[in-house]
Amino acid sequence: MNTLLSTSSSLSLIQQWLRNQNLPFTADDAVPSKGQGRWAIVFDQVRVHLMELHTGHVLLQARVTDVPANASDSEKLVTRAMQTASARMTMTDVGLSVDADGTAMWLQVQLPTHSTTHDLTQAVQRLVNEVELWRHAL
User: 101: helix, coil or strand?
Assistant: First the structure.
């Protein structure tokens, strides 16, 4: 029994969550150094990226849409996105971001260091629901 506890505690939050969801992770992922773990899982046509940050926090992100190359279409999308972000700001901890090269919009949520697998489950559900809402809105 002590072995099970020590094995469980040596797993990262994401790995514990993957195990609880009966989702595989490779032997190479067994004990990543802090800030090195990255996984991607698809739920309801939403690919959720789970990342362990050097701070011990967990970052979840999912792509909402591509940003059009055409300046006029891009401006319209960004305007709708800012309106949606403003309306959603008080309702959720999920935030809008744009990738470094400005080609895609993402939603992100960050979990603090001492989060539980239940917290992670709730965050994944919120993120997937928000992505579906945003895709419909945009």
Answer: coil
**Torsion sign across C-alpha atoms 68, 72, 73, 78:** positive
Dihedrals phi, psi of 47, to nearest 5 degrees: -85, 115
- pLDDT tens, position by position, 4-33: 333 455 788 998 999 999 987 654 444 444
Give how far Cα 60 sits from Cα of 8, 23, 80, Å: 22, 17, 23
3-class secondary structure, 123: helix
Q: How far is CA 82 from the centre of its chain?
A: 20
CA distance 11 to 67: 37
What is d(CA 84, CA 136) in angstroms, rounded to the nearest whole number? 11
Model pTM?
A: 0.83
